[in-house]
Amino acid sequence: MIYRLKEFKGDTIPVPQLVFSKLGIAEEYNVRVALYVLATGITDPEKLCADLKLRSKMTAESALSFWAGAGLLERYEENAAPGEEPTAPAPMTWSEIAAASRTDPMISSLIDCAQTSFARPLTHPEMEKLVNFYVQEAFAPETVMLCVAYVASRGKRTMGAVSHELKVWRAEGVETGEQADAHLQLLALRAQREQYVSGLLGIADTELTLGGRKAIARWYEVYGYDDAMVQEAAVQAGPKRDLWYWNSILKTWNAKGLHTVHDVRGPVAGMGASRNLRVDRAEPSGNDFLKNAARRRPLRKKTDTPAE
Fold first, then answer.
1. 218 CB-near residues (< 8 Å, 6+ apart)
2. I need a surface site. Which of 48, 138, 146, 175 has the fewest CB within 10 A?
3. Cβ-contact 166, 148 below 8 angstroms
4. pTM
5. Is 282's pLDDT higher than 50?
6. Where are the alpha helices (DSSP H) in the chain?
7. Are 193 and 225 within 8 A, CB to CB?
8. What is the pLDDT of residues 241-257, one digit of tens each?
9. 39 touches 13 (CB < 8 A)
């Protein structure tokens, strides 16, 4: 069966693109609240709860907080003076979280996930911080769970570490659970590349600085180089095992449009080689010496008699 839109018979309301961008992570009641607020302008939790038949006033407040964090709504104090900056509402308390968890099963899932990842019970302040990532800061619950597990795997079992990592993820455009999963795969790939480079340097990967890690990511993700190109830079640097010296080599190659080891070793690279980049040539082996000597030896005429 094929469907198509009927001719509109009633009033219509504009729906911001922001709402559609959050459909993948918004709970059903969040979508209902958004459409209701767009149509009526009403944001009173009790009115929302009554008109939309929500389970509790806390559900309405959770939805309003979600859309405030997403940027659809803005917070303000009813008695605030004109021009005064709005203040963020106080974080949910433990009693409010306990009440909300009875209507929103995702809250219990967040707490269970964190306690499993941290291998210990969470304190009430930690629970408050964890739930407010979801309720107030509008992080998708799947994103929070994946972030908690990732931070714990790195030996950091605090909400401060989770908060920092979530901010980094959001700055890199990670919002949905799918994006968080893809980001974790990228982080795992970066870790493998850092281990490879630190192995070439002869150091532990824990000794890499933040700047060094960013440089390594740039080699692979911006320049598009692979392990072979990084190894070639190490070879051409000779005994100088210095990440930033290698960085100057790779940066120069990228500026010249050299993308493969063949490009680097070809005549084009030799014509434009920088005076600052020294290529250490290996000493010829014994076989190479014999081959070169054979080439220089004059050819023996057929009439010559062999030596005794």
1. none
2. 175
3. no
4. 0.54
5. no
6. 17-21, 28-40, 45-52, 57-70, 94-101, 105-118, 124-135, 141-153, 159-171, 177-201, 210-221, 227-236, 243-255, 261-265, 267-271, 286-296
7. no
8. 899 999 999 999 999 99
9. yes
